[in-house]
Design the sequence.
């Protein structure tokens, strides 16, 4: 399993993918250790194709020009409620299927984050993603191809599921498909 440091990833990007910034800014980039790469609009499609071409866990997922594949933004608000602003979701990665309450995080651009304790249950990651947290720090995060459904909405969404932190976060890749209004009334 290839686990490069953030510095190693940055050097690999500079050497093999920096030239893509003029024509592919913001697109998803799967970058293998030998410099081969794939570029596309959809993160899940790029990961699935990269698994076929490079092998599971043998590449990192980035954004062209942005480096980080995901950004988890800090929202300067405090929410106090029994379930607000959580949504119940059904999710699946490989053989694991669960229903959990996920925080609807409009500062997270990806689909779903599950607690990192699941990483060992999933097995070898499909891809290593770089995630930038609200404090500006970069983190290497195991990511897996999976799916997520908001309970009550009968649409299964292909998703790159990140194993990171200690809570479930539902991000904008899912939330932006809908108009979300919370009513504590």
Sequence:
């Amino acid at each position: 399993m290839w686990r490069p440091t953030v510095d190693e990833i940055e050097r690999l990007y500079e050497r093999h993918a920096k030239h893509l910034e003029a024509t592919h800014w913001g697109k998803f980039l799967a970058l293998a250790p030998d410099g081969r790469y794939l570029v596309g609009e959809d993160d899940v499609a790029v990961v699935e194709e990269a698994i076929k071409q490079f092998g599971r866990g043998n590449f990192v997922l980035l954004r062209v020009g942005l480096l980080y594949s995901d950004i988890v933004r800090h929202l300067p608000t405090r929410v106090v409620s029994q379930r607000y602003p959580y949504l119940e979701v059904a999710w699946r990665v490989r053989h694991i299927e669960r229903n959990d309450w996920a925080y609807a995080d409009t500062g997270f651009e990806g689909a779903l984050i599950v607690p990192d304790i699941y990483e060992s249950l999933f097995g070898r990651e499909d891809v290593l993603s770089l995630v930038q947290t609200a404090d500006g720090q970069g983190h290497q995060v195991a990511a897996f191809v999976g799916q997520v459904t908001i309970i009550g909405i009968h649409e299964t969404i292909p998703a790159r599921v990140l194993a990171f932190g200690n809570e479930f976060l539902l991000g904008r890749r899912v939330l932006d498909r809908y108009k979300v209004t919370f009513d504590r009334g």
Remarks:
- The CA atoms of residues 19 and 69 lie 18 Å apart.
- The two ends are 50 Å apart (CA to CA).
- The chain has a mean pLDDT of 86.
- The chain has five helices and eleven strands.
